[in-house]
Hints:
With 178 residues, the chain is an alpha+beta fold. It has one domain (3-166). The chain has helices at 3-24, 56-66, 70-75, 94-102, 109-119, 148-166; strands at residues 31-38, 50-54, 86-90, 130-140. The chain is globular, with a radius of gyration of 16 Å. The mean pLDDT is 91.
Amino acid sequence: MDTQAASREIEDLLFALIPRRVGELRISVPVYCLMVKYLSGSEYGDTVPSLELPADSLRQQIQKEKGNKAPYFLWSHFELPHCPEVFTATIHDPTLLAIVRLNPDLANRKLAQIVALRLNALDWSQVTSVTDDFVVIAADETQEFGDTFGDIKASIGEERLANLRARKLIGSESWYHL
């Protein structure tokens, strides 16, 4: 399988597997986003993305506690606390794992952004409990790129970005500060 075909295969598998995996979590409280956490290179082992879904109740708590600095803590997965309000999952699929192992550098930032953008077109209320401003974003597990806003922008598109700004969930001048 050539690189382009393998990349498309990984993308299509993730697009199919991620909603299924999220549904299996049976989350009963609204979540405000799904972070598709990618690894930046094969030196980290298998590069299949993992998933993180923070609850809206956590978002409200962060907004109250952090004020104008809240966006940084809402969208940077490293800043989210390890607590019951953050749901996590891994994706275990033998076909996906086999393709990723043969092409470890393909399950990367660009692929996570493309998958997130495609996943944003789904009606997530049919999969799990979500807020009306729910988004799917790529998130750098290693922080090698240090570009959380670049990942968000590439993942959600301009319309959703404008909506998050209007709701004061992302800053206008600086994404991480209102």
